[in-house]
From TrEMBL:
Name of this chain's protein: Phosphoserine aminotransferase
E.C. number(s) listed in UniProt: 2.6.1.52
Organism lineage: Bacteria, Pseudomonadati, Planctomycetota, Planctomycetia, Planctomycetales
Organism: Crateriforma conspicua
Family statement drawn from the similarity comment of this UniProt entry: Belongs to the class-V pyridoxal-phosphate-dependent aminotransferase family. SerC subfamily.
GN (gene name): serC
Function in brief: Catalyzes the reversible conversion of 3-phosphohydroxypyruvate to phosphoserine and of 3-hydroxy-2-oxo-4-phosphonooxybutanoate to phosphohydroxythreonine.
Residue numbers of N6-(pyridoxal phosphate)lysine PTMs: K207
């Protein structure tokens, strides 16, 4: 390896960005090694046709690895789409609500759910049946806090609210007659899931599964019958399902990296059970520092709702907050500023954040509290 390359790896910091977010170093290095010429292709993966067998094989491989990791059965399609999570806010109601005469029901536990329902209302009847806005989205619904109608078009929720740091541990209760729809953008692949509980689950890649540009949509095949024929072509799930995500040019480079991340999870981490254990340990390390700080750090999310992925907390005042961020940067701990709607600090500790990064942050937090408490 040339010294320039060694230097660039050494310049890497512990990056707590909420998204686009840190990727595993070993995957970045593989991508670097293959960037100029994908083995056997005589060209970069970015330079070959999406119909080229080498790319089609790679796309199928990425789908197969996701199916293997999550145990996704043949009852479901695995689609690779563009437009980010935001386009799914519209595509879901366009395909599953428009023209049905039914109502889509939404559980609002944070900012992303709120954005999603706004788009759904343009497509048909959509109502929130739970909204934690009064407490600035610090909690999850308790049993009995909401009632899903047996004939709802679908029940929508966001499994991990990235901005507030609020995550469901289990799927919300939902009648068998109602498809469950989940925005899993920021906790996709952080743990095993029982996909058979879902009608549709989607995730933009740039939080926990790859670079920006590709969004994974896992949809139960029978739901595709609902899509109105007169939808704009790109917006119709059927087109993407029938064309195996090649209805038009898919985001080839992003799919290529996503496939590598899936293999890293399977082969290097050892699967999603092992990933979950690591995520539990990493998040516990930070929540423990918060809980043992005598109130110096105040977590945003209620204890039962705490996210494995986004740890949100406040300091006693704005000056200390600013100084926390500035001091942390000196320890190579970056991108810790919380979202403007919550304030404070947000440490995003997705799958690719090494244990060492979390431990470094935890030690910094203890020292900072001691010096300033
Ligand atoms: C980041 C994020 C989004 C928005 O993703 P885009 O790809 O920018 O549209 C939606 N939902 C959740 C939970 C997110 O974390």
């Amino acid at each position: 390896m040339s010294s320039a390359l060694t230097d660039s790896a050494q310049q890497r910091v512990f990056n707590f960005s909420a998204g686009p977010a840190a990727l595993p170093l070993s995957v970045l290095e593989e991508v670097r090694d293959e960037l100029v010429c994908y083995p056997g292709a005589g060209a970069s993966i970015m330079e070959i046709s999406h119909r080229d067998k080498r790319f089609v094989d790679l796309l199928h491989d990425a789908q197969a690895t996701l199916r293997q990791l999550l145990g996704i059965s043949d009852d479901y399609e695995v689609l690779f789409l563009q437009g980010g999570a935001a386009l799914q806010f519209s595509m879901i109601p366009a395909n599953l609500l428009r023209g049905t005469g039914k109502t889509a029901q939404y559980l609002l536990t944070g900012s992303w759910g709120k954005k999603a329902i706004k788009e759904a209302k343009k497509e048909g009847a959509a109502e929130s049946i739970y909204d934690a806005g009064e407490t600035n989205y610090d909690r999850l619904p308790a049993a009995g806090d909401y009632q899903v109608a047996d004939d709802a078009a679908y029940l929508y929720y966001c499994s991990n609210e990235t901005i507030q740091g609020v995550q469901f541990t289990d799927e919300p209760a939902c009648p068998d007659s109602v498809p469950l729809v989940s925005d899993a953008s920021s906790d996709f692949l952080c743990r095993p899931l029982d996909i058979s509980k879902y009608g549709l689950l989607y995730a933009c890649a740039q939080k926990n599964a790859g670079p920006a540009g590709v969004t994974v949509v896992v949809v139960r095949k029978d739901l595709l019958q609902r899509s109105p024929a007169d939808l704009p072509g790109y917006l119709n799930y059927n087109n993407h399902a029938e064309a195996d995500s090649e209805w038009n040019t898919p985001p080839t480079f992003a799919i290529y990296v996503l496939g590598k991340i899936a293999k890293w999870l399977r082969d290097d981490i050892g699967g999603l059970d092992a990933m979950l254990q690591q995520n539990q340990e990493k998040s516990q390390t930070l929540y423990q520092v918060i809980d043992q700080s005598n109130g110096f750090y105040r977590g945003h999310a209620q204890t039962e709702a705490r996210s494995l992925m986004n740890v949100t907390f406040n300091l006693p005042n704005d000056d200390l907050q600013a100084s926390f961020i500035a001091e942390a940067a000196k320890h190579d701990l970056t991108a810790l500023k919380g979202h403007r709607s919550v304030g404070g600090i947000r440490a995003s500790i997705y799958n690719a954040m090494p244990v060492e990064g979390v431990n470094t942050l935890a030690n910094f937090m203890k020292d900072f509290a001691k010096a300033n408490g």
